């Protein structure tokens, strides 16, 4: 059941990443059209979007991991006290202690990068299809 919910969460995350990248693509249509008009090949546009997503994934995955480690290090040693019998049951004791498993953290960052890579494919494909003439004629 937990893996199912994690899978649903990953699909939702991929959809959110793809949506934000698609909106960024549509906002930068004139810039992409200008690049194409001065001779930038489609592969350059594709690689630009891919590199942008890679940098964003690594940067914010690293920041999120560091913040998570900071919370684990500060709260993990003292633990979160259980307030009641139900909490003690779910915590398996009077306190909930956190610990950092570096393999799992690296697995999550790697998974996020893979999901971001696949979520970038459609917006990058849309960016490659922008014609210079249409992008230059568009008025906002």
Note the topology.
Elements: H1 2-27, H2 29-37, H3 42-75, E1 80-81, H4 85-91, E2 95-96, H5 102-128, H6 132-137
Antiparallel strand pairs: 1-2
Commentary on this structure:
The protein is mainly alpha-helical and 140 residues long. It is 78% helix and 3% strand. The chain contains six helices and two strands. It has a two-stranded antiparallel sheet with strand order 1-2. Helix 1 (2-27) runs parallel beside helix 5 (102-128) and helix 3 (42-75) runs antiparallel to helix 5 (102-128). The model has no long low-confidence stretch (mean pLDDT 85).
Pick out its properties.
140 residues; mainly alpha; 6 helices; elongated
CA(first)-CA(last) distance: 48 Å
Number of helices: 6
Uncertain segments: none
Q: Count every beta strand, where a strand is a DSSP E run of 2 or more residues.
A: 2
Principal-axes geometry comes out as: elongated
Portion of residues within helices: over 70%
Radius of gyration, whole Å: 22 Å
Question: Can you summarize this structure?
Answer:
The protein is mostly helical and 140 residues long. The protein is 78% helix and 3% strand.
């Amino acid at each position: 059941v937990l893996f199912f919910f994690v899978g649903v969460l990953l699909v939702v995350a991929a959809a959110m990443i793809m949506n934000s990248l698609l909106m960024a693509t549509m906002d930068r249509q004139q810039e992409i059209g200008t690049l194409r008009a001065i001779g930038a090949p489609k592969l350059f546009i594709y690689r630009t979007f891919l590199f942008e997503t890679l940098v964003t994934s690594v940067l914010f995955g690293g920041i999120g991991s560091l913040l998570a480690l900071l919370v684990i290090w500060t709260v993990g040693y003292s633990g979160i006290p259980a307030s009641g019998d139900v909490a003690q049951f779910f915590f398996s004791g009077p306190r909930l202690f956190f610990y950092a498993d570096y393999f799992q953290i690296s697995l999550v960052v790697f998974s996020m990068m893979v999901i971001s890579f696949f979520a970038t494919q459609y917006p990058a494909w849309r960016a490659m299809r922008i014609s210079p003439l249409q992008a230059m004629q568009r008025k906002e």
